[in-house]
Amino acid sequence: MPLNGKHVVVTGGAGGIGSQLCTALAAKGASITVIDRVEVLPFEAGYIRGDLSTFEGIRAVADQLRTQPVDVLINLAGIQYFGECDQQDAAQTALTYMVNLMAPVMLTQAVLPRMKFHNKGHIVNVGSIFGSINFAYFTTYSSSKAGLKGFSEALRREVAADDVHVTYVAPRAVKTSLNTGKVMELAARTKMHMDSPEWVVARIMDAVLAQSKDVYLGFPEALFVRINALFPRLVDKALAKNDAIARQIATQPRS
User: What global pTM score does this model have?
Assistant: First the structure.
């Protein structure tokens, strides 16, 4: 799909991956609006300053989107928690689901009526390999991304007759400053593959331009997504060693 002249809205567009994605979109001639909560954008673009961590914040952003003609909505914003599930406090748990799942759903609901009326539009949800291979000690992150995957698939079937496209892109681990020291220790000890933001942005752009349905990034992770869907107990055994390492790291006292 050509992006020249299209209005593209990107959540989390001020971040490391988001800013690079916005730059790539603008290079294709798109008009960009960023949704984030920074004071000032590091580049020129339309800006909706909002907080996607609360119901009220999401609703306020959604109300603004309803007044705009949006051709492409890219739900990129996301947060991650690594640790024992029962040690994540309620506020942080709610935050994870708000940003990773509720925000994409509610913002999509805001832009869909106009897209359906005009029989055109594109929703792009950036999930994670962790949403298909649900990793221990990333319980709320994995389950929130699994929810986003399910939302994308159900919505795609629902709006197919309206000529609205839905893309789900699932990167594996990415080298960003958002990774905590414990996550980086886990990556090193388990030899976890971590992709550069530049590579991930290029793959997201490919998916947007091709209006792909489901895109899983990285090998062998993309293969394990298929294996896990068919033989999850086999994957249990394959991950057992790494799960033990994750347990050691996750249960370390905070320094």
Answer: 0.95
